[in-house]
Recover the amino acids of this structure.
């Protein structure tokens, strides 16, 4: 009898479930997709401009998905991420309106606004006890409505310095990619090395258990939604930077994309289980799918169909199944 | 001796009411450091409410909690923990997806400059694990890979990390058996020797008299008696708990008829066992066959295979001479009813009313012009309520509000509406208190008298011994022995179940 068994553990083999849980599964699919694209059109796919396209697509999605990842880990869901990004993008362009001196204060203001939205979510969920789905469904409409009230058409103008962050690149790597890398590093560090990170898994896994063990459940939930709000606002700033103007539909559908990549990455929508590595793999995979439609000169209208097929196929194989 | 050690935690006149019920009525409790204080009582006697108040999960309506003689008011478990009062709940709060170390430190994370101090945490975790006898367990192990017994030890380790002076153990033995129980006792005694005050809640009265230094018995929210454990033996505890003697727990068994109702031939459940033992079994009308064996010996699977819920690898099942096909619906139609082990998830639809649960398996009886008639459903419920003695305020009461015993009666009522010939019972009295148990025993023997064939799986050995004409013993996925008549006793069952005769395994 081995020591592990003696200590009461069951020995286990690496299984598909483990691959899913650790987020490795989606990377395998990603690798397969890259191989397929290399075979289909090596020159086009590996061209720096195309790689830059893919990476650019990951930035906004990735930032927003980091926030969604945190909220889903907490056992919730944030449907307002898209409209929060929209409002942030619209206000960024409108308030900067071409004046370089306004850039920094406006960007900081947007992050604060995102944080404020998060505080509202967190309090409604943790203190009032409303379901996250309902709360953020309501704010999805509220925030989108606010954006339309401000403007129904693209408006404002970001500075050239800000748009350079989104549009210029070194070789295949856009500057804005550094923003994503930094954000990933911060979130990964927070999850792994702070008490909040540990407690987030506990709150999402079993709120009653967390409370019984003295975890400040409300504070943890509010923090998760605040981080999600700030990240959504940051995604909005980069949306504005990329478009150079602010559009009241800039972040349309982003909330669904973020849920998609979080789920593809093997994170449980029930909360408490998830891998950041998996979510990042999901971000890359979805970005790859969108940009490859253009690369392979397929009609753009196919994007949604392909997305649906990819999600269903991946889910059938990898997604954490509901356990009975 | 009792007064030589100081009282750490005291409850004085605690009263708590919920709509329609006084859960706790002027209850007192005194916990002294270094002593194990057993808290016993039937389900609903107020143990949980008392514990919830002591640990900050609930505030009392009246009365006070004293810590070292000073009045305290815990509005939140955090506050109780900060004062050194922790609980290990019956429903384990170990998070399966987290590591053992993270679980032990949950809510007590040691940080330096905002970051988790891994070295400090690791030291604490290892020290706490060592004290609960898991010194050689790697703290990085995922909690879901631990046995239930060890998950429970992780919970106790948590309480140690919090420097708890009072630890409440709520039914710690519910998930344990045999040597696991012994090691729990060793840990509990060790904690007491270190000066921790232990409150120990249990249904198993033998272990109470074994382990405890003091005993407090609760009934209907009141403290019935309290005193040193030496003053108590099992019969006295039961008397105090129930308020009367319960010697006539098992009603006399009826004489079975000659007619074979259930005939099982060569039945083998689909399973991973290499050498399955085929089951041949005849159960006559009015006969009760008990199935014993350790947890995991395949008892439940066998039962579910007879009921058509679990696929058969081989064999046939006949009821009153007619073959029973596989498939739950078809087996039900053939006259087989299974009262499942998981009452709350498989036996009942908890959010529905007691009326709706009672008629669920036989909706055809309550149709009127092709549509459900609530009026007819109520009539059906009231018939069963009278027949089985179901304690429910009215037909629309939510099933989740009933006690375990009354819930189990609803499950029985649901199947009885279909007039089954064969009744399969899986752990029929789990989570049911002493009084309701004997009622269920009477109901089951009553059904046998009416000509039903009964097969009952139970982990409660006295129940199997007291209620069965014959006892089948399971081991390793199949039935390995059968006892009848005077051979039915505890030793014989355990010998077969554990294979102590030394035959191969």
């Amino acid at each position: 009898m081995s020591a592990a068994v003696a200590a009461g553990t069951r020995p286990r083999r690496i299984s598909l479930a483990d691959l899913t849980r650790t987020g490795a599964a989606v990377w395998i699919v990603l690798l397969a997709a890259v191989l397929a694209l290399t075979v289909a059109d090596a020159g086009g796919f590996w061209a720096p401009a195309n790689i830059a396209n893919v990476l650019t697509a990951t930035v906004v999605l990735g930032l927003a998905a980091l926030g969604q990842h945190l909220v889903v880990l907490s056992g919730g869901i944030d449907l307002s991420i898209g409209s929060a990004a929209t409002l942030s993008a619209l206000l960024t362009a409108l308030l900067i309106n071409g004046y370089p001196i306004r850039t920094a204060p406006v960007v900081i203001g947007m992050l604060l606004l995102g944080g404020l939205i998060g505080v509202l979510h967190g309090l409604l969920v943790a203190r009032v006890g409303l379901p996250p789905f309902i709360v953020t469904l309501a704010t999805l409409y509220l925030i989108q409505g606010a954006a339309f009230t401000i403007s129904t058409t693209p408006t404002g103008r970001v500075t050239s310095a800000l748009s350079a962050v989104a549009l210029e690149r070194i070789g295949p790597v856009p500057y804005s990619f550094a923003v994503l890398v930094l954000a990933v590093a911060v979130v990964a560090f927070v999850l792994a090395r702070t008490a909040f990170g540990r407690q987030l898994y506990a709150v999402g896994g079993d709120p009653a258990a967390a409370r019984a063990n003295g975890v400040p459940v409300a504070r943890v939930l509010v923090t998760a939604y605040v981080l999600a709000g700030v990240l959504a606002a940051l995604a909005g700033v980069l949306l504005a930077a990329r478009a150079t103007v602010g559009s009241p539909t800039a972040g349309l559908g982003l909330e669904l994309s973020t849920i998609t990549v979080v789920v593809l990455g093997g994170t449980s929508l029930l909360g408490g289980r998830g891998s950041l590595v998996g979510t990042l793999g999901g971000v890359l995979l979805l970005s790859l799918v969108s940009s490859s439609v253009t690369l392979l000169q397929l009609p753009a209208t196919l994007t949604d169909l392909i997305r649906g097929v990819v999600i269903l196929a991946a889910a059938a194989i990898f997604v954490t199944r509901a356990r009975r | 001796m009792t007064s030589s050690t100081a009282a750490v935690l005291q409850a004085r006149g605690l009263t708590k009411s919920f709509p329609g019920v006084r859960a706790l009525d002027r209850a007192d409790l005194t916990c002294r450091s270094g002593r194990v204080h057993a808290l016993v009582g039937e389900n609903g006697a107020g143990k949980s409410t008392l514990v919830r108040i002591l640990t900050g999960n609930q505030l009392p309506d009246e009365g006070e909690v004293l810590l070292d003689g000073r009045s305290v008011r815990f509005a939140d478990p955090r506050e109780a923990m900060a004062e050194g009062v922790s609980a290990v709940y019956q429903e384990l709060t170990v998070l399966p997806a987290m590591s053992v170390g993270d679980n032990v430190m949950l809510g007590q994370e040691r940080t330096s400059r905002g970051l988790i101090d891994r070295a400090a945490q690791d030291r604490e975790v290892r020290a706490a694990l060592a004290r609960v006898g898991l010194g050689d367990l790697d703290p990085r192990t995922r909690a879901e890979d631990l046995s239930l017994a060890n998950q429970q030890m992780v919970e106790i380790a948590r309480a140690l990390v919090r420097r708890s002076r009072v630890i409440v153990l709520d039914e710690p033995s519910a998930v344990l058996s045999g040597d696991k129980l012994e090691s729990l006792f060793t840990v509990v005694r060790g904690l007491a020797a270190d000066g921790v005050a232990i409150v120990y809640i249990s249904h198993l009265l033998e272990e109470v008299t074994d382990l405890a230094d003091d005993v407090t018995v609760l009934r209907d929210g009141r403290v019935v008696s309290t005193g040193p454990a030496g003053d108590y033996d099992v019969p006295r505890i039961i008397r105090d708990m129930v308020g009367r003697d319960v010697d006539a727990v098992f009603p006399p068994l009826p004489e079975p008829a000659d007619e074979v109702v259930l005939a099982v031939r060569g039945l083998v459940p689909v399973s991973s066992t290499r050498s399955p033992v085929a089951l041949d079994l005849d159960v006559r009308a009015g006969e009760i066959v008990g199935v014993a064996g350790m947890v995991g010996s395949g008892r439940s699977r066998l039962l579910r295979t007879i009921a058509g819920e679990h696929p058969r690898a081989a064999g046939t099942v006949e009821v009153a001479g007619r073959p029973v096909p596989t498939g739950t619906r078809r087996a039900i139609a053939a006259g087989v009813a299974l009262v499942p082990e998981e009452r709350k998830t498989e036996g009942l639809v908890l959010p529905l009313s007691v009326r709706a649960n009672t008629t669920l398996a036989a909706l055809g009886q309550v149709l009127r012009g092709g549509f459900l008639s609530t009026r007819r459903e109520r009539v059906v419920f009231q018939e069963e309520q009278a027949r089985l003695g179901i304690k429910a305020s009215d037909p629309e009461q939510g099933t989740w509000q009933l006690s375990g015993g009354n819930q189990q009666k609803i499950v029985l009522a649901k199947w009885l509406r279909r007039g089954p010939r064969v009744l399969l019972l899986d752990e029929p009295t789990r989570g049911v208190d002493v009084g309701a148990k004997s009622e269920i025993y009477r109901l089951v023997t009553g059904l046998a008298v009416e000509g039903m064939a009964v097969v009952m799986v139970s982990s409660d050995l006295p129940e199997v011994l007291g209620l069965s004409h014959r006892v089948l013993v399971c081991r390793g996925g199949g039935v390995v022995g059968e006892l009848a008549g005077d051979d039915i006793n505890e030793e014989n069952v355990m010998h077969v179940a554990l294979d102590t005769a030394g035959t191969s395994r």
In short: Residues 434-449 of chain B form the longest helix (16 residues). Residues 355 and 395 of chain B are 5 Å apart (CA to CA). Residues 350-419 of chain B form one domain. The radius of gyration of chain B is 25 Å.
